[in-house]
Amino acid sequence: MNKIKSHYLLIILFLLFANRSSAQDSILTHLPLEEAKLASYKMQVTYNKTSHLLFPSPIRYVDLGSDMVIASKADPIGNVLRVKSAVRDFEEETNFSVITEDGKFYNFDVYYKFLSGRAQL
User: Signal peptide: which range, if any (predicted)?
Assistant: First the structure.
């Protein structure tokens, strides 16, 4: 009877260790960096107008690439971000990133849009 119990115990221990080792293999599996790249969205901003971005989930974190752009969440909504230029006529490109509560990451490349005197449709 003891021999049967020890066999069952050995089988259980073997299954536990075999399961742990295969779980570790799945953690170590990852995409190469070149396959994990995210595409950036292009965005134009102006000094006189505010743009609103709607995300599918509430915003958790916003990182601005420079002080040429300002952004804030539209409370109490939580998934709307207001963005505009903080300075007039900046020439270099900047960026900002957003992480939403569902874990998604969004990156935006931002350019200043010089407004002409004519209306564009």
Answer: 1-23
